[in-house]
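Notes to self, Glycoside hydrolase family 127 protein:
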Amino acid sequence: MAYLLDDEDMKKRAKKYIDAIIVGQEEDGWICPCSKEERDRYDMWALFLILKVLVVYYECSKDERVEEVIYNATKNFDRHIDTFTIFNWASTRWYEMLIPIYWLYEKRKEDWLVNLSIKVRAQGFDYKYLYENWPYENPSSFGQWSQMSHVVNQAMAVKSLTLFSRISKNDEDKKFSEMMIQKLHDFHGTATGIFTGDECLSGDSPIQGTELCSVAEFMYSLEHLIQITGDVKWSDQLEYIAYNALPAAISPDMWSHQYDQLVNQVECSKIEEGKQPFRTNNGEAHLFGLESHFGCCTSNFNHGQSLHYLHL
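result:
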């Protein structure tokens, strides 16, 4: 965002954090903030995130340090998952690691990177099996939280097998997103183009919430579908989300930010615990403010804003 706006102050602030991350990388390539004793139980989702950040930073800044940092971190990860397979968020979001792997492979045509993509796919959660045997036609039960029906995971996973199709060369993988999106819209869709989830898939009622992170991540997934398939229907869908679901959850001055947006919301006030319509979120999740309910959407909304700007 700093580079899109050409804002020198924002660029300096971003570089301060990037510098700290680069300096903090250990000699063996490990870059995540934990001790060596904690590595065996560390969720590698954090690595996927920071490598994607570094890729974007390089594309903006052309900082020559970044390629070597990503190379060493990816090499370390390749060794790490031979012993400690991915789990938790890294398992349900395995496909995100393909993004820095592909970026690196385009710079260094080394076969181990292709093999690493296959290892990550093998260790990651199987969305194809889940959607072919779809158990979520109905909303999640109140209080029931699941990685398998978590709305942000679904929004992110839309691009999963399409990304992997660059390795598999499989048309079924490339088209999997179509079936996935259709099921989400059929059973959990809304008029704004996004599907409900507060936190997990919540049906098609207009009083169920949709997490802002799912909007931003769905837009990001659609961007990758456009890049890989070249199909303009994904551009149309991205535009629809950008002009409907995204502005429903955040305004330019950020003061209409909601963790959960509701298509049919008639009131904006704190709801007594136990009476909120949300499946797992609390009675403040729909309030306007900088950080309502949880901070992930506050950190992630600009992801969608940047995509919208680039798409235009």
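- Residues 65-83 form the longest helix (19 residues).
- The radius of gyration is 19 Å.
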